[in-house]
Known about the structure:
Number of domains: 1
Order of helices and strands: HHH
Structural class: mainly alpha
Number of helices: 3
Amino acid sequence: MSVMSMRLPDEAMERLGALARATGRTKSFLAGQAVMEFLERESWQVAEIEQALGEADSGDFASDQDVAAAREKLGSYAR
């Protein structure tokens, strides 16, 4: 396991400390969890964007008929 030092705003440290006390976890554990969740979410988003860009580059777009059918199916929700 690696060690990293980082600066946090005072408010974030206070909130992290309060959460650590309330959950019985360490601040380091909670911060590590938060970083892992952030990395998972951001990695997923980047992968989805890269996939969409690949589809767009290959001309894989919804047709006008596909879009019209989706709007019809969604009805007022699409507005």
